[in-house]
Amino acid sequence: GYVIAGAVAGLSVDVALYPLDTLKTRLQSQQGFYKAGGFRGVYRGLLTVATSSMPTSSLFFVSYEATKKLATPMVAPQYLPFVHMFAASAGEVLACLIRVPTEIAKQRKQTYVGNQAKSSIGILVHAFRTEGLRRGVYRGFFSTVMRDLPFSFIELPLWEQLKTLVKNRNDENINSFQSACCGSIAGGVAAAATTPLDLAKTRIMLADDYAETRKLRIKPILTHIYAESGFRGLFAGVTPRFTAFMLGGFVFFGVYDASKTRIESFLDR
Description:
By secondary structure, this protein is an all-alpha fold. It has one domain (2-267): Mitochondrial carrier domain (Mitochondrial carrier fold, Alpha/alpha barrel). It contains eleven helices and no strands. It has helices at residues 2-16, 18-28, 46-71, 80-110, 120-137, 141-168, 176-193, 195-206, 210-213, 218-234, 238-267. Helix 1 (2-16) runs antiparallel to helix 3, helix 3 packs antiparallel against helix 4 and helix 4 (80-110) packs across helix 6. It is globular, with a radius of gyration of 19 Å. The model has no long low-confidence stretch (mean pLDDT 84).
């Protein structure tokens, strides 16, 4: 049930909110919003995301739920948020094995970087041939993990805690709409808090040549941006990112819980 529910949830949110993600990426691009494409072609790279979101989300939720199920009986209730953090971190690291190459292809299409005649597969093949697996296809893997782990440390425990509050006020019951509202709040808070990490990851992935930018690391990038544009510069793209993840959290967790409930009831027949 987790595989199908996660796949449906991931596909739903990625397709529905893709234009906001494109605008966020262009706002964070070093070349500037309008040179990166402005408001044109906001669905560029959608097929790449649509085809990869299902296995990515499935892998995340299978890992998350399995880790949570194994670890929960071993700890006292007051330590459950740490279980959720650990389970989320396991899911995120595995999901990044699919997510990072997808992000490389997607963001280069979104910002018109490189040869625009190339397909997403062509972009990754070119990256592999010219820069190899780690420096090309998996460039930014560490920065993506460093962005997604703090995001999950905030989002998943907050979602679980908000659901617990709803259940405590509702005789231990919660429906998919209430879960979606909890997910919306958790997603928005986590997205806003981790915007600087997302910005650094975007700059690393969009750099033209790894050989010239091998010194790019999260801290120097953020230090440079802060010196150039101040605190506001560190939160470039925060509005579309916050909006996307509030809406995305609502769709993602709502669809996930609804799908999981229906699949489990079907299997129990």
